[in-house]
Design brief:
The complex is a heterodimer of chains A (428) and B (342).
Chain A (H helix, E strand, L loop, with lengths): L1 H25 L1 H4 L2 H23 L16 H27 L5 H15 L7 H4 L16 H12 L7 H35 L2 H4 L8 H21 L2 H13 L9 H16 L1 H29 L10 H13 L1 H13 L3 H13 L6 H25 L10 H7 L4 H17 L1
Helix pairs in contact in A: 1-3, 1-11, 3-11, 3-13, 4-8, 5-7, 8-10, 8-19, 10-11, 10-12, 10-17, 11-13, 12-13, 12-17, 16-17, 16-19
Chain B lengths: L1 H13 L1 H12 L1 H13 L6 H32 L7 H30 L4 H6 L3 H23 L3 H8 L12 H24 L2 H4 L1 H8 L3 H5 L3 H10 L5 E4 L12 H8 L3 E4 L14 E5 L12 E3 L4 E3 L6 E12 L2 E8 L2
Parallel strand pairs in B: 1-2
Antiparallel strand pairs in B: 3-7, 4-5, 5-6, 6-7
Helix pairs in contact in B: 2-4, 2-5, 3-4, 4-7, 5-7, 7-9
Chain lengths: 428, 342
């Protein structure tokens, strides 16, 4: 199982890394920049380090907690029902995407459109010039990093005779397989299947498999990256660390607007330092440096090479207003609206906190705290981001849908914590 | 005095009728929502504050009933641990389970009605919003799952659940207070687990919506303005310059350059907003455009004055042109070729 999990995650990392290398070769201005070279070198280095350490170390058999229930026929029935429910989810997404006639708005305007331009021989750095007679959307084609468009482009170039929307069903299946494989050693087969189904069945996540947007691949890479790092914190195997870092940092190449990696880096640093200062401070530094490099290199590409326009105003006056707002009550008002924006899904995140409290005496508590801290810092990040945006745009409360879609990567860690606590209650 | 109140409250809560009555009230919340709508639409209440009070009352009423019934259920779990559940209570639980199922079914059918008819159909006819129905549906599912769990394991599950509640957290502490907190935490986590489970039924309940969405054509998805895009795609050459209306509420699709580029690429698109003077037209002496809403006074685009050979693409400034010719019409949309002075 360990080997399958490793090679599954490695192939996901290689997919995005290969696309990055292709992008690097395609863009002459990018491959002559120090940032681009440094990022790619570090990415290749991390992947090789991971593969080398994995192949060098003889694999150990991981004991799963469901060894007792394996012999029970009732457990087999439950597993069969859960697998059936999982297949239903996959098939319903497949059917929807297979019969789909028209792509949705953002896919048409951006993700699939860029794939068509790539097929027409237009490079990414040239896409701004396509919109030279547009007074409003000069920055638009570089607003999102290229992963989804590149994957669409590959799909078309390879000549896969299926609709492009099916790619998102495969992402959903990948998400299910990844969550199951990563959680199985922690929860056992039955409970990890339950957790996987609970994650995939959530409206905010499942619905992203029915639209060709960036949300699902972003969730796939970031969620699995977080769970891989969680596994590293428990098993202390270096290959999980390297893969986790590549997956988390690569998510920036799918969506760039939310610096979610910052929450992961911060949580890893805090938990790592409390575990073992010496070994974790170095690894936290590598992680922070690589993620920052991923952030800066894409920002450099969009800002300097392609003259991207700024979306948000960052002048001191615009920053001063929100700071004053803390004392005038705007902060509190915003906090109330923010809580309401999450809707009832906030209960799942609250549940992850309560579950953590129930697990305080367990040996894996530090690794689980890492998951909770990622959730906590992400909530704080979204709040701060929205708080500042609320002073510049009137439409910020309308971002609730976008907030729910882009935060789906938190569902897997949160549901894992809840399921773990419930499993504990049921099995004692 | 306080002791007497607690004893009376205990007796009330233990009585199977107490849960039954609260649950029946909860099941009738859609009727109360309808009543609220009826009162408002028939102008029985005139002031805004009265209406606001009614809205707030309904909201509080729904959540109070929901929390109250769940609390009683959890109290019963605690009360009957290790004991045989009395017949009266059992009957109420079965009744609740069955009614939850049918309540869920009825609400889902109502939600389907909204899909089949039109958005806001439920509110305009019954005073019910989809958010309201979805939230009470989730509650009824949680109650149903809780009851199923109670019966499936013959109550053993909850006996274990209660007895083991003091083993992990504050292991060394004997304080009753912490044991109680631990139990509350476990009940809350189990409740949230059931809630998450209920939420994960979404793909099952939304299957027909998904299929409906997947069978939508471009015209259905992007609206009636898609016909302008189709006309331009069919009647203009691929290397053409195409002028389109400025981006805004008036021309939501045809003014949105990134979206229409998907269908018109590799044609070069020019926003009419930029055509304020003759300087820009020098780079493309010939261009194409589709006549948008020619019958409308507000949304008509472009503003044409054929007698003086002038045209306005930005709704403000007029440009002189040399020649204007009709290329053709497609589904009632006229597409023109325009030649500017060099």
């Amino acid at each position: 199982m360990n080997k399958i999990t490793y090679f599954f995650l490695l192939s996901l990392s290689i997919l995005i890394s290969a696309e990055k290398v292709y992008f690097f070769i395609q863009e002459p201005k990018y491959h002559s920049s120090l940032l681009g070279i440094a990022e790619l070198s570090l990415m290749v280095g991390l992947l090789f380090w991971s593969l080398y350490s994995f192949l060098k170390t003889p694999p150990t058999v991981v004991k799963t907690s469901d060894s007792k229930s394996r012999s029970k026929p009732a457990a087999k029935k439950v597993i069969a029902i859960l697998v059936g429910a999982g297949l239903f989810l996959g098939l319903s997404s497949f059917w929807h995407n297979y019969t789909k006639i028209a792509l949705d708005w953002d896919a048409v305007a951006l993700y699939d459109a860029r794939a068509q331009f790539l097929r027409g021989g237009v490079k990414f750095s040239e896409m701004g010039s396509i919109a030279k007679y547009d007074y409003k959307n000069g920055y638009y084609y570089l607003l999102y990093p290229p992963f989804t468009s590149f994957t669409h482009y590959l799909w078309y170039q390879v000549g896969i005779p299926l609709p492009i929307s099916l790619l998102y069903t495969f992402f959903l299946m990948g998400m299910g397989i990844g969550i199951f494989l990563l959680l199985q050693p922690r929860l056992g087969t039955t409970w990890s299947l339950v957790a996987t189904l609970l994650v995939l069945g959530q409206q905010s996540l499942f619905s992203t498999s029915l639209v060709a947007y960036t949300n699902l691949p972003y969730t796939l890479y970031l969620s699995l990256g977080i769970l891989t790092l969680h596994r590293y914190l428990i098993e202390k195997k270096i290959w999980w660390f390297c893969l986790g870092v590549v997956l988390v940092s690569s998510s920036q190449w799918i969506r760039f607007l939310e610096p979610s990696w910052l929450a992961v880096v911060l949580a890893f640093f805090l938990v790592g330092v409390s575990k073992d200062w010496r070994s974790y401070s170095f690894k936290s530094l590598i992680m922070a440096f690589y993620c920052l490099l991923g952030y800066v290199s894409w920002k450099y590409f969009t800002d300097v090479i392609s003259d991207k326009e700024a979306i948000f105003n960052t002048s001191p006056l615009y920053i001063l207003e929100p700071v004053i707002g803390i004392f005038t009550g705007a902060f509190l008002q915003m906090a109330l609206i923010y809580t309401r924006m999450w809707g009832s899904i906030i209960l799942i995140y609250l549940g992850s906190f309560l579950s953590l409290l129930l697990q305080l005496k367990k040996p894996e508590i530090k690794a689980d705290t890492f998951l909770f801290l990622v959730i906590f810092f992400s909530f704080a990040m979204y709040f701060c981001g929205l708080y500042f945006i609320s002073f510049q745009f009137d439409w910020w409360p309308e971002m609730a849908g976008s907030l729910l879609r882009s935060s789906t990567f938190l569902l897997a860690p949160a549901i894992y914590l809840v399921v773990k606590a419930v499993k504990d209650v049921f099995e004692q | 005095m306080i002791k007497k109140i607690i004893t009376t409250a205990n007796l009330i809560v233990k009585n199977p009728l107490s849960l039954l009555i609260v649950w029946l009230f909860f099941l009738s919340t859609p009727l109360f929502a309808f009543l609220r709508y009826y009162i408002i639409t028939n102008h029985f209440l005139f002031s805004v504050s009265q209406r606001q009070f009614l809205n707030l009352f309904l909201l509080v009423f729904k959540w109070f009933l929901n929390l109250y019934s769940l609390s009683i259920l959890i109290f019963w779990v605690r009360e009957f641990n290790g004991k045989i559940i009395p017949r009266g209570h059992k009957l109420v639980l079965i009744g609740m389970g069955v009614s939850s199922f049918f309540f869920f079914l009825a609400n889902t059918l109502l939600l389907k009605l909204e899909e089949i008819q039109f958005p806001n159909y439920l509110y305009s006819n019954f005073g019910l919003t989809t958010d309201f129905l979805e939230s009470i549906n989730q509650i009824s599912l949680v109650v149903l799952l809780l009851i199923i769990f109670m019966f499936l394991d013959g109550g053993k599950l909850f006996i274990k659940f209660y007895k083991k509640s003091d083993t992990v957290w504050f292991k060394k502490s004997n304080a009753v207070f912490f044991k109680k907190i631990n139990l509350i935490l476990r009940v809350a986590v189990l409740g949230i687990f059931l809630f998450t489970l209920a939420r994960s039924f979404y793909p099952l309940t939304s299957f027909s919506t998904s299929i409906k969405n997947s069978t939508q054509t471009n015209e259905q998805k992007f609206g009636h303005e898609f016909k302008f895009v189709e006309a331009l795609r069919k009647l203009t050459p691929k290397e053409a310059f195409v002028i389109h209306p400025p981006q805004g509420i008036k021309w939501q699709l045809i003014g949105n350059q990134p979206t229409i580029r998907y269908f018109l690429y590799p044609r070069t698109l020019v926003s009419g907003q930029l055509l304020t003077g003759p300087s820009l037209t020098k780079s493309f002496p010939t261009a194409y455009f589709a006549e948008v809403y020619p019958e409308s006074n507000d949304s008509k685009w472009p503003l044409l004055s054929t007698s003086s050979a002038k045209v306005s693409f930005d709704d403000k400034n007029y440009l002189e042109y040399e020649k204007l010719e009709l290329v053709g019409t497609e589904a009632g949309v006229a597409v023109y070729r325009i030649l500017f002075y060099e």
